């Protein structure tokens, strides 16, 4: 049986959206898939050495808030200074309490499982990042690099 | 419950950690050896079935013991 392949494009740089690519990639690797993640635009935040990911209630009516606040709290209130920090801290605590892995841990598990991670060179340049801002082992490439692997993949996800 | 060679306590861990830890522990076992896994994540019941099916490691037993989920997996 040929080894199955999973290709993921990670485009989002918030704490909540950091989970799907790393959960799916690490699990796929555990199931024997050859896995590659292509990080572009805000997704580049997920491969920085120092992670500083946040979750925002702003413009996110689906986000459950404590004390039923999502039912009565005014939408504009979610734009108040400090809301992002508060919600991020609460989310991280909730995740820890429920035994959900941290992004650092999942990312490390992906690296251990030899998930190949590629940063989009164009957006690295666009945002004036340095290659030293990113984790070791990260490769840099463009759209054609992505298709080289994605074209042969069994599953291809855009996250 | 049948005999096993090694035990993995994945209590308190949530998806996908029980599967990832199991995979890692299985890597250290010999073919034919049995790993016993204890988990509290209700999703792990279906997940270990799927894991066994896709990796070829055999799920010998899947059950509940004292409010926890217990699995026996034989390494392929």
In short, what is this structure?
The complex is a heterodimer of chains A (159) and B (76). Chain A is α/β, with parallel strands linked by helices.
Describe the protein in words.
Chain B: InterPro entries: TusA-like (IPR001455), TusA-like_sf (IPR036868). Chain B: Pfam families: TusA (PF01206). Chain B: This is tRNA 2-thiouridine synthesizing protein A. The complex is a heterodimer of chains A (159) and B (76). Chain A is α/β, with parallel strands linked by helices and 159 residues long. Chain A has a domain at 5-55 and 103-158: 3-Layer(aba) Sandwich (Hypothetical Protein Ychn, Chain: A). Chain A is 37% helix and 15% strand. In chain A, strands 4-3-2-1-5 form a five-stranded parallel beta sheet, sandwiched between helices. Chain A is globular. Helix content of chain B is 30%, strand content 34%. Chain B has helices at residues 17-27, 44-55; strands at residues 6-10, 34-39, 58-65, 68-74. In chain B, strands 1-2-4-3 form a four-stranded mixed beta sheet, covered by helices on one side. Chain B is globular, with a radius of gyration of 11 Å. In chain B, 30% of the residues are buried. The interface between A and B is medium-sized, with 11 and 14 residues.
Q: What pair of chains forms the biggest interface?
A: A-B, 11 and 14 residues
- Shape estimate of chain B: globular
For the biggest sheet of chain A, the summary is: 5 strands, parallel
* Total domain units of chain B: 1
> Any idea of the CATH class of the domain at 5-55 and 103-158 in chain A?
Alpha Beta
What is the CATH architecture assignment of the domain at 5-55 and 103-158 in chain A? 3-Layer(aba) Sandwich
Straight-line distance between termini of chain A: 28 Å
**What class, by secondary structure content of chain A?**
alpha/beta
CATH fourth-tier homologous superfamily of chain B: TusA-like domain
Numbering strands along the chain, what is their spatial order in the largest sheet of chain A? 4-3-2-1-5
Structural class of chain B: alpha+beta
Q: Give the N-to-C terminal Cα separation of chain B.
A: 20 Å
Low-pLDDT sequence parts of chain A: none
Give the radius of gyration of chain B: 11 Å
């Amino acid at each position: 049986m040929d080894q199955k392949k999973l290709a993921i494009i990670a485009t989002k740089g918030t704490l909540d959206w950091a989970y799907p690519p790393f959960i799916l990639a690490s699990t796929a690797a555990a199931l024997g898939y050859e896995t590659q993640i292509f990080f572009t635009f805000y997704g580049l935040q997920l491969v920085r050495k120092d992670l500083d990911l946040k979750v925002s209630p702003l413009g996110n009516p689906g986000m459950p808030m404590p004390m039923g606040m999502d039912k009565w709290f005014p939408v504009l209130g979610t734009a108040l200074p400090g809301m992002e920090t508060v919600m991020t801290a609460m989310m991280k605590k909730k995740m820890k309490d429920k035994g959900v892995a941290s992004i650092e841990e999942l990312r490390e598990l992906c690296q251990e499982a030899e998930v190949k991670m590629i940063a989009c060179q164009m957006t690295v340049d666009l945002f004036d990042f340095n290659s030293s801002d990113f984790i070791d082992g990260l490769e840099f490439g463009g759209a054609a690099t992505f298709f080289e692997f994605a074209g042969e993949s069994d599953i291809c996800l855009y996250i | 419950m049948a005999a096993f060679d090694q035990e993995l306590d994945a209590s308190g861990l949530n998806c996908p950690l029980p599967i990832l830890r199991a995979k890692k522990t299985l890597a250290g076992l010999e073919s034919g050896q049995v790993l016993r896994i204890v988990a509290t994540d209700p999703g792990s019941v279906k997940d270990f079935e799927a894991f066994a099916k896709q990796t070829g490691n055999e799920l010998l037993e899947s059950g509940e013991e004292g409010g926890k989920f217990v699995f026996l997996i034989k390494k392929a």
